[in-house]
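Entry:
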Amino acid sequence: MAKRLQFLKRFAALTVAIFAISLSVNAQIWYIYGEYTWSAPHPVGTFHEYHFSDEIVEIDGLQYTTLYVDSEVNDLYLDGAYRNDGNQVYYRKWNGTSLDDEFLLYDYDLEEGDFFNDDNEHPMQVTEVTTITDLNGLSRKKIAFSFIGLPDASEFWIEGVGSSRGFMNVGMWEADHDSDGEMYHLLCYHEDNNVIFVNPEYNDCDMPYAVEDNSINTDVSIYPNPANDVVKILNDNDLNISCIEIIDLTGRIVLSTEKTDNIDLSVIPEGQYFVKIIGEKTIVKKLFISK
């Protein structure tokens, strides 16, 4: 927290032209898993980071929310500021001294066949538009993309959450086709300590390094996993747990119980599910059921 406060002070001194408005911002956090394949002497490796929204600022009469990034390989830094205008999201990148002109980061009005990033060498084309239900029961649009000229590259957006590559990594196809570079993958997205979306391609929201978010707790685990007819929540830290929900990949709650020990799974088909542990903290784990 100390390094964040120091950075915010430096940022305030540099952005005299930006007038901060005293408005509260819902805490939004995007947890990211990264891979890098840089040239020697840098080895192939992985890292984790999180992007989080902070204060509201006013620029040219428009209100933006600042976005910060913290990771294992970099100190906390300001990335930029974004604003929502209907179903479009605009972004201003921080260049080290000020915020650049805004550009269109997301357009959730896109439909199948539409193009995005037309000015790029390999623009994105919408291949499918579907609807998912998030872990709060809210329907959200899912937009899947392919990249023109790159048949193996793909990406999807979740409306109001962002890209499967992470909020700021739209169109990050380069590392898939380049021996040098980075590749990002969104793990999950939080609002006010509530897990809203978990990327089904990854295990859960737990991060392998400490972050300042009390919704993350590695003392709570699921056993066995994969499970057959029963599962139990191992609550070594004696957290106050009020409810356990088992949720399928469409967001439908298939089981809700106050039990934490020997939860009966016999009526649930085999497959992949999320276990939402609700109490003083909200924690989401991935559960595999194998009959």
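The helical segments are 2-14.
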